[in-house]
Design goal:
Chain lengths: ~230, ~80
């Protein structure tokens, strides 16, 4: 009874907070100070047509490095937890074969999904999307392959090597920015180029491609670990 | 926001609430997973309507794509234990 009453009070409190927020909300007539700074300076300082990418990769690049690190930790811990079950391979239970539709469809779709993933992170500085989105689309392609053939084995060494090399180069480019340009993860170590061109915005396409590969490898390693584990 | 986008947003938000209730209250696990995916999908369309395509892409790729399939994958792994 008291528990129900507490839940009711809690819900009412949350409703009151949201009601005040909603009723007092008025859309800004003009950009606020921070937004105006980014909107005005991005084209000349960073040279990226997508302002969100400029903020994520350059202005707030350190946060992105932290996010990638969190994802790396998550995938390592999944690998660690599942490593115990991987030895139970004495009687490999034959999973049900995937349907003909799924097998044929995945043969057609996997290359296209992978291509879309690469497109999204290579064009991160021009169109919406970027490393995280592209990387997870890559991992969806890997997942499709695993669904079509549950016994497929992915090389853990390849995935972890890809992941480590991408991370290493990401930090190396960041450190290079300290010496060649304004600071850590400054994108102006390469020429900024023309706004809207594929090879523009300095090091952003390079950094975002590395992030895409790293995120894709991390998600894929989670999936491959899950697939290789027989018993939980 | 124009009239149409307001209507679309309200419809999507109602869909999200209904799907979230289905995910919590539903009896069958696969339907709960699908409902959770529907919440993410509607959320990504709402993000698109309020002009944040980057967030919408992340939500669509991770929230509704990868997570839904990951949960199904795990469900297939843990089947055969407790029947809930």
């Amino acid at each position: 009874m008291i528990k129900r009453f507490a839940i009711l009070v809690m819900l009412l409190a949350v409703a009151a907070v949201f009601a005040t927020l909603t009723l007092s909300y008025q859309p800004d007539a003009e950009l606020n100070q921070t937004a105006r700074y980014y909107a005005e300076r991005t084209a000349s300082e960073v040279g990226s047509a997508n302002i969100v990418t400029a903020i994520v990769v350059t202005y707030r690049g350190l946060d992105t490095l932290g996010e990638v690190t969190v994802l790396f930790l998550a995938s390592s811990i999944v690998g660690l937890l599942l490593a115990r079950g991987r030895n139970a391979k004495l009687n490999p239970a034959k999973p049900l074969p995937a349907s003909e539709l799924l097998v044929t469809g995945s043969r057609l779709l996997t290359p296209l999904v992978m291509l879309l993933g690469v497109y999204v992170f290579v064009n991160g500085h021009l169109t919406p999307g970027g490393g995280f989105q592209g990387g997870s689309i890559l991992a969806s392609g890997v997942l499709l392959m695993l669904l079509a053939d549950p016994l497929k084995h992915f090389s853990h060494h390849l995935i972890s090597a890809l992941e480590s090399i991408a991370g290493l180069f990401y930090v190396a480019i960041g450190v290079l920015g300290i010496f060649l340009a304004g600071g850590f993860l400054d994108n102006r170590i390469l020429p900024i180029g023309e706004l809207g061109a594929l090879f523009s915005a300095g090091a952003i396409p390079l950094i975002y491609s590395l992030i895409g590969l790293k995120v894709g490898a991390e998600f894929s390693s989670i999936l491959a670990n899950l697939s290789a584990t027989e018993e939980l | 926001m124009s009239q149409l986008t307001t209507i679309v947003t309200v419809v999507l938000c109602i869909t999200m609430i209904v799907a979230a209730l289905m995910a919590i209250r539903g009896q069958s696990v696969p339907i709960a997973i699908l409902a959770a995916g529907l919440v993410s999908l509607s959320a990504s369309v709402v993000f698109l309507v309020v002009a944040s395509p980057d967030v919408a892409m992340t939500e669509a790729a991770i929230g509704s794509g990868l997570t839904t399939f990951l949960l199904f994958f795990v469900l297939a792994r843990v089947r055969g234990g407790e029947n809930d």
